[in-house]
Amino acid sequence: MANLPMQASNMKKIIMIAFSSCMLTVASAQTQFITKGRVEYEKKVNQHKPLEDDAENIWNKERMKVIPKFVSDIYELRFDEKRSAYKLKKENPDNKYMMWGSKPTETDGVIQDLEAKTTSTQREVFENTYVIKDSLRNLEWRITDETREIAGFECRKAVTKICDSVYVVAFYTDQIAVSSGPESFGGLPGLILGLAVPRLYTTWFATKVELTESTSAQLNPTQKGKKVSWEQLNSELKKSFKDWGSEAARRLWIISL
Predict the structure, then answer these.
(1) I need a surface site. Which of 15, 219, 221, 253 has the fewest CB within 10 A?
(2) Between 34 and 252, where is the model more confident?
(3) CATH says 37-255 is which class?
(4) Model pTM above 0.90
Protein backbone atom coordinates (compact mmCIF):
# COMPACT_ATOMS: atom_id res chain seq x y z
CA MET A 1 0.00 0.00 0.00
CA ALA A 2 2.97 2.30 0.65
CA ASN A 3 3.89 2.20 -3.03
CA LEU A 4 0.50 3.47 -4.27
CA PRO A 5 1.34 7.22 -4.14
CA MET A 6 4.54 6.56 -6.10
CA GLN A 7 2.66 4.43 -8.65
CA ALA A 8 0.03 7.15 -9.05
CA SER A 9 2.74 9.73 -9.52
CA ASN A 10 4.46 7.62 -12.18
CA MET A 11 1.15 7.08 -13.95
CA LYS A 12 0.54 10.83 -14.04
CA LYS A 13 3.99 11.34 -15.56
CA ILE A 14 3.29 8.73 -18.24
CA ILE A 15 -0.04 10.36 -19.09
CA MET A 16 1.54 13.82 -19.30
CA ILE A 17 4.35 12.55 -21.54
CA ALA A 18 1.83 10.82 -23.84
CA PHE A 19 -0.37 13.93 -23.95
CA SER A 20 2.62 16.17 -24.73
CA SER A 21 3.69 13.79 -27.49
CA CYS A 22 0.20 13.93 -29.04
CA MET A 23 0.17 17.72 -28.89
CA LEU A 24 3.57 17.91 -30.61
CA THR A 25 2.30 15.57 -33.35
CA VAL A 26 -0.81 17.73 -33.93
CA ALA A 27 1.27 20.94 -33.96
CA SER A 28 3.70 19.39 -36.43
CA ALA A 29 0.83 18.37 -38.74
CA GLN A 30 -0.66 21.86 -38.58
CA THR A 31 2.63 23.49 -39.57
CA GLN A 32 3.17 21.22 -42.57
CA PHE A 33 2.99 23.13 -45.85
CA ILE A 34 0.72 22.05 -48.69
CA THR A 35 2.58 21.33 -51.94
CA LYS A 36 -0.01 19.44 -54.02
CA GLY A 37 -3.60 20.22 -54.84
CA ARG A 38 -6.26 21.77 -56.99
CA VAL A 39 -7.90 25.21 -56.81
CA GLU A 40 -11.08 26.48 -58.43
CA TYR A 41 -11.24 30.22 -59.12
CA GLU A 42 -14.22 32.35 -60.05
CA LYS A 43 -13.11 34.84 -62.68
CA LYS A 44 -15.43 37.85 -62.70
CA VAL A 45 -15.49 40.74 -65.19
CA ASN A 46 -17.43 44.02 -64.86
CA GLN A 47 -18.56 44.66 -68.45
CA HIS A 48 -20.31 47.98 -67.82
CA LYS A 49 -17.37 49.74 -66.21
CA PRO A 50 -15.53 50.66 -69.46
CA LEU A 51 -18.74 52.25 -70.77
CA GLU A 52 -19.58 54.34 -67.70
CA ASP A 53 -17.27 57.22 -68.67
CA ASP A 54 -19.50 57.75 -71.67
CA ALA A 55 -22.77 56.47 -70.22
CA GLU A 56 -24.84 59.12 -72.02
CA ASN A 57 -23.84 57.69 -75.38
CA ILE A 58 -27.01 56.18 -76.86
CA TRP A 59 -25.20 53.08 -78.11
CA ASN A 60 -23.60 52.48 -74.70
CA LYS A 61 -26.96 52.95 -72.97
CA GLU A 62 -28.56 50.30 -75.14
CA ARG A 63 -25.69 47.86 -74.64
CA MET A 64 -25.86 48.22 -70.86
CA LYS A 65 -29.59 47.45 -70.97
CA VAL A 66 -29.22 44.10 -72.73
CA ILE A 67 -25.78 42.91 -71.58
CA PRO A 68 -25.32 41.85 -67.93
CA LYS A 69 -23.03 43.98 -65.79
CA PHE A 70 -20.98 40.98 -64.65
CA VAL A 71 -19.93 37.73 -66.28
CA SER A 72 -18.17 34.96 -64.38
CA ASP A 73 -16.57 31.64 -65.23
CA ILE A 74 -14.80 28.90 -63.26
CA TYR A 75 -11.10 28.19 -63.81
CA GLU A 76 -8.92 25.44 -62.40
CA LEU A 77 -5.30 25.39 -61.23
CA ARG A 78 -3.64 22.04 -60.60
CA PHE A 79 -0.24 22.14 -58.93
CA ASP A 80 2.57 20.34 -57.20
CA GLU A 81 5.93 21.59 -55.94
CA LYS A 82 7.42 21.54 -59.47
CA ARG A 83 4.61 22.51 -61.84
CA SER A 84 1.20 24.14 -62.24
CA ALA A 85 -1.41 24.04 -65.00
CA TYR A 86 -4.23 26.61 -65.32
CA LYS A 87 -7.24 26.37 -67.64
CA LEU A 88 -10.98 26.93 -68.00
CA LYS A 89 -13.00 24.48 -65.91
CA LYS A 90 -16.58 25.56 -66.62
CA GLU A 91 -18.03 28.37 -68.70
CA ASN A 92 -21.25 29.91 -67.42
CA PRO A 93 -23.88 29.14 -70.12
CA ASP A 94 -25.90 32.22 -69.10
CA ASN A 95 -23.08 34.66 -69.87
CA LYS A 96 -23.48 37.31 -72.55
CA TYR A 97 -20.13 38.85 -73.34
CA MET A 98 -19.79 42.49 -74.29
CA MET A 99 -16.03 42.99 -74.45
CA TRP A 100 -13.60 41.32 -76.79
CA GLY A 101 -11.28 39.09 -74.79
CA SER A 102 -13.82 38.34 -72.06
CA LYS A 103 -15.21 35.14 -73.54
CA PRO A 104 -13.08 32.19 -72.41
CA THR A 105 -11.84 29.44 -74.69
CA GLU A 106 -11.26 25.82 -73.73
CA THR A 107 -7.89 25.73 -75.47
CA ASP A 108 -6.35 28.67 -73.58
CA GLY A 109 -4.16 27.70 -70.67
CA VAL A 110 -0.92 28.35 -68.80
CA ILE A 111 1.72 25.84 -67.68
CA GLN A 112 4.33 27.06 -65.21
CA ASP A 113 7.42 24.90 -64.79
CA LEU A 114 8.58 26.05 -61.36
CA GLU A 115 11.69 23.89 -61.44
CA ALA A 116 12.97 25.01 -64.87
CA LYS A 117 11.57 28.55 -64.27
CA THR A 118 9.74 28.59 -67.61
CA THR A 119 6.17 29.17 -68.70
CA SER A 120 4.13 28.01 -71.68
CA THR A 121 0.90 29.86 -72.47
CA GLN A 122 -1.63 29.00 -75.16
CA ARG A 123 -3.71 31.95 -76.39
CA GLU A 124 -6.31 32.35 -79.12
CA VAL A 125 -6.02 35.83 -80.64
CA PHE A 126 -8.54 36.54 -83.39
CA GLU A 127 -8.28 33.48 -85.66
CA ASN A 128 -4.74 32.55 -84.62
CA THR A 129 -3.52 30.29 -81.83
CA TYR A 130 -0.17 30.99 -80.19
CA VAL A 131 1.98 29.06 -77.74
CA ILE A 132 4.09 31.60 -75.89
CA LYS A 133 7.19 30.01 -74.37
CA ASP A 134 9.26 32.18 -72.08
CA SER A 135 10.82 32.43 -68.64
CA LEU A 136 8.60 32.85 -65.57
CA ARG A 137 7.45 36.42 -65.06
CA ASN A 138 9.94 38.49 -63.11
CA LEU A 139 7.48 40.64 -61.18
CA GLU A 140 8.52 43.12 -58.51
CA TRP A 141 5.97 42.45 -55.78
CA ARG A 142 5.48 44.78 -52.82
CA ILE A 143 4.15 42.72 -49.90
CA THR A 144 1.91 44.58 -47.43
CA ASP A 145 0.57 43.88 -43.93
CA GLU A 146 -3.04 43.63 -45.12
CA THR A 147 -4.62 40.18 -44.85
CA ARG A 148 -7.93 38.53 -45.70
CA GLU A 149 -9.34 35.02 -45.63
CA ILE A 150 -9.96 33.29 -48.96
CA ALA A 151 -11.33 29.73 -49.26
CA GLY A 152 -10.41 29.08 -45.63
CA PHE A 153 -6.80 30.30 -45.90
CA GLU A 154 -5.29 33.44 -44.44
CA CYS A 155 -3.81 35.43 -47.31
CA ARG A 156 -1.48 38.42 -47.43
CA LYS A 157 -1.83 41.26 -49.94
CA ALA A 158 0.88 42.04 -52.50
CA VAL A 159 0.96 44.60 -55.32
CA THR A 160 2.86 44.75 -58.62
CA LYS A 161 2.63 46.20 -62.16
CA ILE A 162 2.52 44.67 -65.63
CA CYS A 163 2.93 46.39 -68.99
CA ASP A 164 4.70 49.29 -67.17
CA SER A 165 1.54 50.88 -65.76
CA VAL A 166 -1.16 48.26 -65.02
CA TYR A 167 -1.50 47.58 -61.31
CA VAL A 168 -2.17 44.06 -60.10
CA VAL A 169 -3.31 43.16 -56.57
CA ALA A 170 -2.76 39.62 -55.30
CA PHE A 171 -3.58 37.74 -52.10
CA TYR A 172 -1.34 34.74 -51.44
CA THR A 173 -1.10 32.14 -48.69
CA ASP A 174 2.20 30.77 -47.41
CA GLN A 175 0.28 27.72 -46.15
CA ILE A 176 0.46 26.47 -49.75
CA ALA A 177 4.19 26.52 -50.49
CA VAL A 178 3.92 26.77 -54.28
CA SER A 179 4.88 30.02 -56.03
CA SER A 180 2.14 30.08 -58.67
CA GLY A 181 -1.36 31.38 -59.28
CA PRO A 182 -4.05 32.06 -61.89
CA GLU A 183 -3.05 32.98 -65.45
CA SER A 184 0.76 33.46 -65.58
CA PHE A 185 1.10 35.10 -62.15
CA GLY A 186 3.38 33.84 -59.41
CA GLY A 187 6.68 34.77 -57.82
CA LEU A 188 5.32 35.16 -54.28
CA PRO A 189 6.19 33.05 -51.19
CA GLY A 190 3.00 31.04 -51.54
CA LEU A 191 0.06 30.31 -53.85
CA ILE A 192 -2.10 33.21 -55.08
CA LEU A 193 -5.73 32.63 -54.12
CA GLY A 194 -7.03 36.11 -54.98
CA LEU A 195 -6.14 38.43 -57.86
CA ALA A 196 -7.47 41.74 -59.19
CA VAL A 197 -6.54 43.86 -62.21
CA PRO A 198 -8.53 47.09 -61.63
CA ARG A 199 -7.88 48.61 -65.07
CA LEU A 200 -9.39 45.51 -66.65
CA TYR A 201 -12.25 45.38 -64.09
CA THR A 202 -11.42 41.71 -63.54
CA THR A 203 -10.96 39.56 -60.43
CA TRP A 204 -10.06 35.95 -59.68
CA PHE A 205 -10.91 34.49 -56.27
CA ALA A 206 -10.53 30.90 -55.11
CA THR A 207 -13.82 29.25 -54.16
CA LYS A 208 -12.48 25.75 -53.48
CA VAL A 209 -9.11 24.24 -52.53
CA GLU A 210 -8.68 20.46 -52.70
CA LEU A 211 -5.66 18.58 -51.35
CA THR A 212 -5.40 16.11 -54.20
CA GLU A 213 -2.60 14.75 -56.36
CA SER A 214 -2.79 15.49 -60.09
CA THR A 215 -1.73 13.08 -62.82
CA SER A 216 1.20 13.78 -65.13
CA ALA A 217 -1.26 14.38 -68.00
CA GLN A 218 -3.20 16.96 -65.96
CA LEU A 219 -0.02 18.88 -65.18
CA ASN A 220 1.29 18.57 -68.75
CA PRO A 221 -1.67 19.33 -71.07
CA THR A 222 -0.99 19.36 -74.80
CA GLN A 223 -0.56 22.82 -76.32
CA LYS A 224 -0.64 23.58 -80.04
CA GLY A 225 -0.08 26.80 -81.97
CA LYS A 226 2.50 29.16 -83.39
CA LYS A 227 5.46 29.22 -80.99
CA VAL A 228 6.56 32.73 -80.02
CA SER A 229 8.00 34.65 -77.06
CA TRP A 230 6.03 37.41 -75.31
CA GLU A 231 8.24 40.00 -76.99
CA GLN A 232 7.59 38.54 -80.44
CA LEU A 233 3.84 38.33 -79.84
CA ASN A 234 3.62 41.93 -78.55
CA SER A 235 5.53 43.18 -81.58
CA GLU A 236 3.23 41.27 -83.93
CA LEU A 237 0.02 42.41 -82.21
CA LYS A 238 1.06 46.08 -82.02
CA LYS A 239 1.14 46.08 -85.81
CA SER A 240 -2.36 44.56 -85.93
CA PHE A 241 -3.68 47.10 -83.39
CA LYS A 242 -1.98 50.21 -84.82
CA ASP A 243 -5.31 51.75 -85.90
CA TRP A 244 -7.23 50.85 -82.72
CA GLY A 245 -6.29 53.90 -80.68
CA SER A 246 -6.47 53.63 -76.88
CA GLU A 247 -8.36 50.34 -77.17
CA ALA A 248 -5.18 48.67 -78.45
CA ALA A 249 -3.44 48.96 -75.08
CA ARG A 250 -6.32 47.33 -73.19
CA ARG A 251 -6.40 44.41 -75.58
CA LEU A 252 -2.67 43.87 -75.19
CA TRP A 253 -3.09 43.92 -71.39
CA ILE A 254 -5.73 41.16 -71.61
CA ILE A 255 -3.48 38.98 -73.78
CA SER A 256 -0.51 39.62 -71.45
CA LEU A 257 -2.21 38.16 -68.37
Answers:
(1) 15
(2) 34
(3) mainly beta
(4) no
